[in-house]
Amino acid sequence: MRKIIITSAILLTSFTGFSQEYNFTTVKDVACSNVKSQGRTGTCWSYSTSSFLESEIKRIKNKDIDLSEMYTVRNTYPKKAWNYVMRQGKAQFSEGGLAHDVLNSAADYGLVPESAFTGLAVNQKTHNHAEMIAVIKSMLDAYIKNPAKKLSPRWKKSVNAILDIYLGKNVADFTFEGKKYTPKQFAKTMGIDADNYITLTSYTHQPLYKPFVLNIPDNFSNGSMYNVSLDEFENTMIHALNKGYSIALDVDVSEKTFSSRNGIAVIPADGVKTKDALKEIQKEKTITPAYRQQEFENFDTTDDHLMHITGMVVDQNGTVYFKVKNSWGSKGNRVKYGGYVYMSSAYIRLKAISILVHKDALDKKLSKKLEL
Asked: Cα separation of 247 and 325, whole Å?
């Protein structure tokens, strides 16, 4: 009888060893602002990168600043409209964008705090841009058809008029903590210089350590990214976090193995059920540069969301996951862990399109290779 009990105990231990629910312990946390909700908009690029810049301001100036995401959006839509019209509709006009679009806007138009520009109408509490985008695109399509046979520059004023109605008039100056600023003065005072940031990616169809334009739909501004090896891509994230720098992340979240509801993103090995991998620790695939490239080229990996990496955690087996701040709110049945998602190394290596970091977050060897 005693032998049977011992054998059963061994079997139970063996079973539970392979059926462990996730239990995370913090390894590294970078200071960041509270999780927000982007509402019913496609402005994750502004929310994630504004959150990233808030962490940068905290790191540089030790100030907790709530930046206006919609100020950046308000100043980026005219650029999107210009690109769409000049390409005569043979381009994407949508709510999407990338991290470098926020830095471009900061360089051209500065930054403002949320208190100076909310982008909300009176009595409006959440953002919804569906109607605004439909109205602007319909108008631009009409201009592109050019019924007058000579395109009038008035279309630019028309775009701005619609943006004024839906988001509010642009900000020339404002008062913050008793001092008056222009948006550019505010960005400079907060220590944000767009030239200090760099975008990295990792693909095999371009030479390493050179900048190139990644042809993805949301890269309407044709921003360049430096190509690095896959190991360097991931190691840069680890190195940056360990030095106290956070990271803006462009990533595919359309996978069934990404779940904000469970707060987990993994790439389970073949034969592992998705629902099991989202609830319990499972074996994951080994991600090679060739496999990453294959999944990008066959459209299984697409750029559909931007987020903010703010730390690292480990599970009970010591496996590292990246702590990623989302912009879908912090409460409700759509989110777990207060609106954060823990992404495994495999998920990052396969599904992360690009990252934006401060140049000082790179290790010296990689900086030298990139000739920075």
From this structure: 10
- Phi and psi dihedrals of 84, rounded to 5? -65, -45
Q: 113: how many CB neighbours lie within 10 A of its CB?
A: 18
pLDDT 10s digits, 302-332: 999 999 999 999 999 999 999 999 999 998 8
* Residue at 70: amino acid letter: M
Distance CA 274, CA 142 (A): 46
Residue 161 within any structural domain of the chain? yes
Nearby residues of 105 by Cβ (< 8 Å), 6 or more positions away = 72, 75, 76
Tokens at residue 89, please? 């509709």
The CA distance from 178 to 199, in Å, is: 36
DSSP secondary structure letter of residue 197: E
The 10 Å Cβ neighbour count of residue 238 is 16
Listed residue (259, 268, 277) closest to 328, CA to CA:
259
| DSSP assignments along 325-338, one per residue | E-SB-SSSTT-SGG
**287 is a domain residue:** yes
Angle of CA points 263, 259, 251, to nearest 5°: 100
- As a whole number of angstroms, the distance between CA 31 and CA 81 comes to 35
Alpha carbon dihedral 191, 237, 309, 283, in 10-degree steps, equals: 180
Give residue 88's region: left, alpha or beta (phi > 0; psi -120 to 50). left
Q: Which H or E run contains 28?
A: strand 25-29
- What CA–CA distances, in Å, run from 371 to 63, 245, 253? 32, 21, 32
Quick one: how far is CA 146 from the chain centroid? 36
Q: Is residue 4 part of a domain?
A: no
**Confidence tier at 371 by pLDDT (50, 70, 90):** very high
235: containing domain = 21-369
So what's the pLDDT on residue 18? Answer: 55
Structural domain contains residue 79: yes
Separation of alpha carbons 41 and 72, rounded Å = 14
Total count of domains within the chain: 1
Q: For tokens 């030239």, what's the residue?
A: 195
* Residue 290 in tokens: 């060739």
